[in-house]
Amino acid sequence: MTPVLVSSLGWQYLLILLLVINLTSARSVCDRSTLGAPFLRDCLTLFDRLPFAMTEPKGDLTAPRLFVEPQFLTRPFTPVKKTGTIANMIQLPKIWQLRSCRIALMSFPDDKGIIQRPINNASWRTVQFGLLGGINQCVRARQMGSVEFIVNSYGKVLMMGYVYERGSRFEQQLLNEYMTNGTPLNPRSFIPWTEDVVGNLASIE
Q: What is the DSSP annotation of 130-191?
C-alpha cells in the first residue's frame, strides 16, 4: 500500500500525511454502510486535483477565505460581503468526483441538525489537513468512506468533509434529499456510532 500512496501523493504530501495522523486522529468517523468503500487510488488522485493541490500564487494555500452556504443564512441567499483580508468566497456545498470516489465539503450541523454557522473563515490548508486525515484513517486503513470534522487551530469544528463511494446510500438517497429539500445533513442521524467508529465525537464538540 505504501508505494501506491507515495507515488500518488508525491513526497511533498507524505510529510503532511504523517502530520495529519496526529492532528486529526480524533476527528474522523469511518463508515461503509452509508458512505461505501471508494478505491484509495481514485480518492488520492481526486485529492490531488482539489483546489489546494493546484499551482497557485505563493501563500494562496493559507490565505483566509469565506466558506458560505447561502441557504442557511439568517436571510437565505442574501449577498455576503468580504473584507479586504479575505482572498475570496467559496460557496458550499462543494462536491468533487472521480471514478469511484466522491468528496463533499459541507456545513457543520449542531447535535440537533441545525446549521449555526453558515459562514466560516478558513483556508484551503485547513480543508487539506482535514480531508487527508479522513482518507488516511478510513479509506486507506479501513477500506471505507469517512466523515471528517474539519477544525481550525483551536479545535473548533468549521465544516464537514465527506469521502464516499459513487452510488452509495449517501449519494443516492441522503445527498439527493438534501439537494431537494435543503435539510442539513446530520451524520449522527445516518451513521451508527459504534466501536467500529474511529474518533470520539464528544471530544470535539
A: HHHHHIIIIIIHHSSEEEEEEE-TT--EEEEEEEEETT-HIIIIIHHHHHHH-PPP-GGGTS
Work out the burial of residue 85: count CB atoms within 10 Å of its CB; fewer than 13 is exposed, 13-18 middle, 19 or more buried: exposed
Task: Give the residues across from 45 on adjacent strands.
Answer: none
99 contacts 166 by C-beta, under 8 angstroms: yes
**Alpha-carbon separation of residue 111 from 11, 89, 158 (angstroms):** 38, 26, 14
Each residue of 97-121: pLDDT tens digit? Answer: 999 999 999 998 887 778 888 889 8
- Residue of higher predicted confidence among 113 and 59: 113
Encoded amino acid at 152, one letter: N
Q: Can you read off the three cell numbers belonging to residue 18?
A: 504523517
Exposure on the CB side of residue 99, measured as CA atoms within 13 A: 11
Contact (Cβ atoms closer than 8 angstroms) between residue 205 and residue 157: yes
